[in-house]
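The following record pairs a protein chain with its ligand, beta-D-glucopyranose.
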Amino acid sequence: MKPNPALGPSRRRNSTSRLTAAALLLSTLLQPGLLRQAQAGDIEVLHWWTSGGEARAALALKASMQAKGHSWKDFAVAGSGGDSAITVLRSRVVSGNAPAAAQIKGPSLQAWAREGVLTSINEVARAEHWDELLPQVVSDQMKYRGDYIAVPVNVHRVNWLWVNPAVFARTGAKVPNSWDEFFAAAETLKKAGVIALAHGGQSWQDLTLLETVAIGVGGADFYRKAFVLREAAELNGPTMEKVLTTYKRIKPYTDRNAPGRDWNLATAMVIKGEAAMQLMGDWAKGEFLAAGSQPGKGFICTPAPGTAKSFIYVVDSFAMFKLKNPANSAAQKDLASAVMSPEFQEAFNLSKGSIPVRLGMKMDRFDDCAKASALDFNAAAKSASLLPSIANGMAAPSAIEWALKDAVSQYWNSDKMSAAEAMKRMVEATRAK
Ligand code: BGC
């Protein structure tokens, strides 16, 4: 995937729709009263939102900062799942040249804060009552020793199945709710000569697929014990064996060119009807929308098989770095405030495929997938089925996450590795430092 020109290096896809989104947001933010008086500063934000839908969303952020008079320095690092972005960020921070903010999430926020490189944004958070505006599971994660060091952007749901209804209608396949139905549909599609599942064979996508199968086959309680508490007895036990076997049964329904493929190219296969389904977080919805495809018409969103009551979440957030220049620090506070504003939460999430993280937001401009996601988020929180994504940086220290990605990817790619061997490697991965 190539970087994006409007944001950073080279790419021009969907520029019209992006500009429209930016213009809309700009006009909202220019309404009297919404502008705070601040000294203009430079805002440099590191992120990896470079696909069509992601870039449209990121443009909303750029527009809101420019509306406040700041100059936006985009620091977009292409590379699915953000693996390359974090490597680049580390070298910038080590050389004393940190950006104002960087897309960091989950336990990594605490790890960066412990290094002493993040700054407190309590002044903004207190003045704007963030504690009351955020679910506690989120506000706790945004704080280090009681201080807000990051601002949350959204809530993504991972356990979605994306379906091309035209391909289903043409082949007579039925949209699945359970894994049995999934394999029945996949078989029908395969017999009709269609790629049943578009997969991107990168280790973070391999693990994203596994966690979705895990919650579908093993249930929320199993998921929590295996991936959040990382109990060896669950990582290496009969339920995990069933999960791994089900996971591997999916592979023959993916295509030979899957290895190395970016997630958004897999989504594009579903958009174009080259593949029938994708199991992926709702950042995929951003791609459908950016391509002009509408929910219920061009695509269908449905919970991944067996996961209607569960919700694997990702909360994207921006960690705030210590800066030397006072004008840039002031601009950084404006950034924090803008990200939490209802206007931004709506504009950004309409493009990103996620839902607002700010509580009490009106959902009337959102589509049915987002409305379902918001309802399911609340229901899952009440029934202890709201769980952090291990594949997308929310559930484990990054060394463990990386080791798990490796172990699972090796299993997915090997014709010889047994589920027993994979489980042994997964347990070993949880000891990574
Ligand atoms: C992030 C999303 C992003 C996706 C694909 C996920 O881990 O949370 O914001 O769109 O990766 O890059």
